[in-house]
């Protein structure tokens, strides 16, 4: 899976859990470490955990992809 499709899938999975302010930042020209940042917010700690769990669980189950880092 290419990085753009992965970023779009992460946005879709976050949206499934009603994440707010979802943004995909294209940093290919600025970074040699990553291509995209997917940023989203939630209304509470449990909401944020549900968003993170949705993304990590679905990517692991369907694509055998695991995050390198999670912040926040």
Could you explain the architecture of this structure?
The chain has 72 residues and is an alpha+beta fold. The protein is 46% helix and 18% strand. The protein has 2 helices and 2 strands. The chain has helices at 3-16, 45-63, and strands at residues 20-26, 36-41. A two-stranded antiparallel sheet has the order 1-2. α1 (3-16) packs across α2. It is globular and about 35 Å long. The model has no long low-confidence stretch (mean pLDDT 92).
Broad structural category: alpha+beta
Q: List the secondary-structure elements in sequence, H or E.
A: HEEH
- What fraction of residues sit in β-strands? 15-25%
Helix content: 40-55%
Overall body shape: globular
Major sheet characteristics? 2 strands, antiparallel
Quick check: average pLDDT?
A: 92
Key structural traits:
2 strands; two-stranded antiparallel sheet; single chain; alpha+beta; 72 residues
What would you say about this model in short?
With 72 residues, this protein is α+β, with helices and mostly antiparallel strands. The protein contains 2 helices and 2 strands. The longest helix is centred in the C-terminal third of the chain and has 19 residues, at 45-63.
Write the layout of secondary structure elements.
Layout: H1 3-16, E1 20-26, E2 36-41, H2 45-63
Antiparallel strand pairs: 1-2
